[in-house]
Amino acid sequence: METGTSRVKRGMAEMQKGGVIMDVMNAEQAKIAEAAGATAVMALERVPSDIRAAGGVARMADPTVTEEVMKVVSIPVMAKARIGHIVEARVLEAMGVDYIDESEVLTPADEVFHISKNDFTVPFVCGAKDLGEALRRIQEGAAMLRTKGEPGTGNIVEAVRHLRLINGQIRKVQALSKDELYNEAKVLGVPYELLLNVHESGKLPVVNFAAGGVATPSDAALMMELGADGVFVGSGIFKSDNPEKFARAIVEATTHYQDYKLIAEVSKNLGAPMKGIEISKLDASQRMQDRGI
Amino acid sequence: MKIGVLALQGAVAEHMRSLEAAGAEAVAVKRMEQLDELDGLVIPGGESTTIGKLIRKYNFMEAIQSFSQQGKPLFGTCAGLILLADRIEGQEEAHLRLMDMIVARNAFGRQRESFETDLDVKGIDEPVRAVFIRAPLIKEVGKNVDVLSTYKGEIVTARQGHLLASSYHPELTDDFRLHAYFVDMVKEAAASR
Question: What is the interface pTM, i.e. ipTM, of the complex?
Fold first, then answer.
């Protein structure tokens, strides 16, 4: 009997496919998310848009918040640790959190090194905006990936950019010859073996979700259309006018992402989505996606 | 043999790959009308609460029950096992209620307790590699249910006539024997219809 194997960690993410993982800030929101059909919840003290508004240093949530959420739902509970913050991650693992997001939404604790995730029994998800970042995170032990997008903006443009880029890079890698692959590994800054695996399989070896800007059912469906395995919704649900309806509608649009009549139906009378931010209005210090590359 | 994989949420592609490796034609099922053309159906792993809600939302409940009444085989893995069960411990409402068994969700604990192990399964020669992820257990079975394997004294594989259920994920390995076992069940059922 073996726990924490790569198959057990990656398999857990496989079971999330086609699903929606929702950010929640308390037990009540967690129950709303579960009742709406979320496949997991991400327990947080503040959603990304509030983190953005508050400024200062964003850290792992108070364990009380996470524990309350774990108590009230039967679906998996995820939580965020700062990039490189080994102890926050160990604390979350000790609490029995089901998945850790080593996340650029929080202020990085280490500007050079990510957590060596292979050393943990609990699985990790990490953000990536290109194939190089994706494969470096996998090498460190990430069992699931998500696009970084630009969290807390309610603007899908960066998540689209990242998913399109990663998928385009995969297609390019597939077409390379062996000698070109050696050089591409060097250019991307990734291990040759992982790149060879992508070359041969034509896909990433772990599940890749969309995240960072999903605000509407159509946004979620768009990311599925572009090849995401599922969707994280951060501020998009509990910063909208009607979280329950938004949550249900996003779940249905993710399942039936090519059924446009259905998406039209579930999008009716939802009320206002979260207020968005135009990406060009963010200055360099506010861009979370540039953290932890 | 045309076998569907219920594609509302969960590990659909893995089951399709395994079914095809076991010699069946696999179809992703998103609408209940698709059931008519199928000889068997797999309910995959995923989140049982999510799949259960979508089954109700898209009228799969009665459609799958009548599929089963026609004697067409069903195979549920992990969440799929929970969906097939007659009763779920600690919950008032179950889902499809096709198999005469009581199941417990997340019976081994949280994700850090998830594991893989070798498992003897009745009807399959050598042990299979069984991957348990936040897995359920079968706590009790009715007299028509055949126990195919146990882990530490608890039931993890069971069959009731044309219905098959496992706590673990055969679709996450390259061992296709349990899928082949199910494909044989589908062939037998089709021959006797």
Answer: 0.96
Whole-prediction pTM value?
A: 0.97
pLDDT tens digits, one per residue of B73-126: 999 999 999 999 999 999 999 999 999 999 999 999 999 999 999 999 999 999
**Which run of H or E residues covers position A69?**
helix A63-72
Q: Using CA atoms, how far apart are residues A194 and B87, in angstroms rounded to an integer?
A: 44
Question: Would you state the structure tokens that stand for residue B94, as one six-digit string?
Answer: 């179950």
DSSP-derived pairing of the beta strands A77-82 and A40-43:
parallel
Q: Which domains does chain B have, with CATH numbers?
A: 2-192 (3.40.50.880)
Residue A78 structure tokens? 């995820």
List residues in chain B touching A: CB distance below 8 A. 7-14, 30, 45-47, 49-50, 53-54, 57, 78-79, 105-106, 109-117, 131-134, 169, 172-173
How many CB atoms are located within 10 Å of the residue B14 CB?
22
Query: E strands within chain B?
Result: 2-6, 25-29, 40-43, 74-77, 85-88, 99-104, 115-119, 128-132, 137-141, 146-151, 154-160, 163-166
The Cα A178–Cα B193 span in angstroms is: 53
Q: Summarize chain B as % helix, strand, coil (round to 5).
A: 35, 30, 35
Residue found by looking up tokens 């498992």 in the block: B119
Q: Do A2 and B105 touch (CB under 8 A)?
A: no
Closest residue in A to B77 (Cα–Cα): A15
Of B155, B162, B139, which is closest to residue B40 (Cα–Cα)?
B162
CB A51 within 8 A of CB A62: no
Q: How many H-runs (helices) and E-runs (strands) does chain B carry?
A: 5, 12
Give dist(CA A22, CA B78) in Å, integer. Answer: 22
> What is the length of chain B?
193
Smallest CA–CA separation between B112 and chain A, in Å?
A: 5
